[in-house]
Hints:
Layout: H1 7-12, E1 19-20, E2 41-46, E3 52-55, H2 56-60, E4 65-72, E5 77-88, H3 89-93, E6 104-109, E7 114-118, H4 119-122, E8 128-133, E9 136-137, E10 147-149, E11 162-168
Parallel strand pairs: 1-5, 2-11
Antiparallel strand pairs: 2-3, 4-5, 5-8, 6-7, 6-11, 8-9, 8-10
Amino acid sequence: MTKPAKSEDIAARVPPGQTVVENFPVLSYGPAPRLNLTTWDFKVLGLVEEPIRLSYEEFRALPQSKQVSDFHCVTTWSRLDNTWEGVSVAEIMKLVKLRKEARFVVIHCDGGYTTNLPLSEFLDDDVMLAHRHDGADLELDHGFPLRLVVPKLYGWKSAKWVRGIEFADIDRRGFWEVRGYHNHADPWTEERYSFQEDPEE
């Protein structure tokens, strides 16, 4: 039997300006997109030797993994100890041969949403493409059938309704990043808005 976490242990896991919540708020731009799993696919494209396209059944047949991590939203709430199940990025990369110019990643999602990451952070060992949360399939409003999970960054980088990964040689800002949100999004240094960015970066 595990001991309950001490309040000081929890406090050490909560970034500045954040409040812990028990529920899982739904925050999206517009309604959840319509879903048809018979036509849904997942693509890997851009600076790869061969593009990849997987059907829903093919994606779900990939080796599965599980992780527990905290989730920090830029709107100042944090939800601790989320159990995610899905396919690790490390597993996806076993299918991919990158071209040497690849330095960044653009995540493409249904609904026209995108977000961007440096390749090095996308390849972190805790980044995954999840289809289950806390023992149940993701709800549509939380990104079913597939969302990215990037625990070290604010939640808008954990994009919902993922349909593809594009590898690129330049950094292209995503949906929220061109609308005034920080290009990097580290919750521990409160990288919330683009005006906080170093002008030389």
